[in-house]
Amino acid sequence: MSKIWIEILTPKQVMMFGRLARELEKEHELLITTREYKETNELLELKGISAEVVGKHGGGTLEGKLIASIERTEKLSQLVQAEKPNVLVSLASPEASRVAFGLKIPHVCINDIPEAEAVARLTAPLATLIVTPKLIPKEVWQKYGVQKERIVQYDALDPVAWLKGFKPNNEVLELLKIKKGKPTVTFRTEEIFAAYLANKVSGSSSLVLPIVNELMEKIDANFIVLPRYREQDETISQLLNGRAFIPHHAIDGPSLLHYSDIFIGSGGTMTLESALLGTPTISCRPFNTMYENYAVKKGLIIKADSTNATKKALGIIHKNSSYKKKLGKKAAQLVERMEDPIKVIKSVLQKFV
Question: What residue spans of 26-93 are helical by DSSP H?
């Protein structure tokens, strides 16, 4: 029986590769690796996915990232030499990419964000194949040294991989103490440790917190704030002092987004999830990507910043529910037309097992 190595580093990858793993394990042996990273580890547990924890997240400094990556690469190398997988699938993991290249293991590299230049430079040139959304022109990957024949495209946005056939679980309403009769406003804090956002965000401030405070002064609502890191959790919990619900552990994000009346995000994955679920979505991310621009053009995401996000949010909240229903219908039609990324990835993997 062939063995497939799946690297899972972020919550998005739990959602995407979790489904892939469930389908592959019927016919193949799996090696699933991750790292010490609170949100990812908790979500893996929530989804019932067993993974080998190898190394840790490097934090926000370049020095910390470098040392953590070096140490993790060595530990991964030892594990992988013992396990001898036939192929690796990762979502642009620098450490897994380097190990696979060094040990001549084929690497199917998924990537929807070529704008994250450091990661792309460390992974794309070493990958056997790049599997990527069709909305990203092949020429974009060629600048990283990837020949056109090594690029496989799927006609979809990544969250379609786990949102096709999605059914919300209303247990999240009780878990987050969401009160009926009030609008639910959900926020996702910004990524503060990503290399591609260096000099764009600060760990000592928040892009969404001023918006939370402004909206709290103007409307009575259920406010949910989803931090990414322990540092954000502690700081925001102190500043909001019980005025918003802040989950301290991983939750069923898609279900929460489904039941939210509006989502305001400073990141990528949950913003796309919300948009594709038909929830009115405002993006305050200080960074443009091709996939977000695509969703904006389709009318599923509204771009804003800290100066105008509150006004735009109030405009949406004050509209009746027909707005969300109309948006939901548009999103559902778009998702229905899109390819299933998991089917494409499975098809590519068959070439190596």
Answer: 38-46, 62-83
